[in-house]
Known about the structure:
Elements: E1 7-10, H1 12-15, H2 20-35, E2 43-53, E3 56-63, E4 66-74, E5 87-92, E6 96-101, H3 103-111, H4 120-125, H5 128-137
Parallel strand pairs: 1-6
Antiparallel strand pairs: 2-3, 2-5, 3-4, 5-6
Amino acid sequence: MFDKTKTRVINPELAAVLPKEAADLIWDMFDTMLAYQAIMDPVVTVQIADAVADGKLGLYFVQESADGQELEGDYAGDEAFLGKGLTVEIIDHADVIYMDFAEMLKAYLNTMHAPIGWPDAEWARQTIVKKYQIFAENR
């Protein structure tokens, strides 16, 4: 499970809203947890803090079979994505380690009522990234 030599892949839709600097920080903190053998499950949910404080961005790693772990790292990248409920998952696959929108975020966006001005049928056809972008604009 979670072999450090596996290729890292980010869902292209997630990469469109998550700055590279933030993704790199998540991977770095994930590697730290791997080094300390703190990863117990094949899916790790990462909640991202709402703001950068003192040049640090907080990340909260959640697993089913372990206590949550809060880590922070230096961050000087784009902050426009913060405070918009972005939660990601790191998933262990046979050949790759994959980062994607968290399933709980996808479920929420898929059950969310269409925002004002969006017909329900059109809202239902939108991709997760488009729904997230609309959700984030209205926060």
